[in-house]
Amino acid sequence: MSIQLQELFLTLPGGAGSLLDRLREAIPRALPPGAWPVRLAVTSSSASSLEVELGLADAGPAGSDPFEFRRRPGHKADSFQAVFVVPTGIGADLGALVLPDGCLGLPTLAALEQGIPVVAVHDPGQRMANDLSALPWAPGQFLRVSNYLEAAGALLALRAGVSTESVRRPLAPTAFSRSPISGA
User: Fold this and answer.
1) Would strands 36-45 and 49-57 be described as parallel, antiparallel, or unpaired?
2) What are the residue ranges spanned by the domains of the chain?
């Protein structure tokens, strides 16, 4: 099996339906015969068209739909990894990146380079061994939290412009001076 990258400019069909439904309709018409999408990234958009990067395998499972949702067998509801889909290239500003602690990849490195805050969620069961805190983050750009509920609170604080250091316990000591105030 080989995988090739292809860039498509799609005119989306009109009418009702979600963006995913409209992509499901438009992409198969634009693919070469026998190509199977294994990666899809929307790189730019307008109200009626999309620019899409696709990773295409030369063969896929016969008669299956790459957009079909298939529940994994053996799903455990007592613990899970949350994945946030990050909107990039579709008219959205990225306020922060939330990821499992230790997950090092292109999104993490892009956030580091562009000064985007990163919230790393600690999970004792994860197997990624990268130490994200060792990267050269700007002050306040990297935050490690204990769970996704705490990550949601950190995102709200960042969005409101509240320093996360001001809401985490224990609070940092307050520095003060005993010098007299002049001009009083």
Assistant:
1) antiparallel
2) 3-57, 97-165
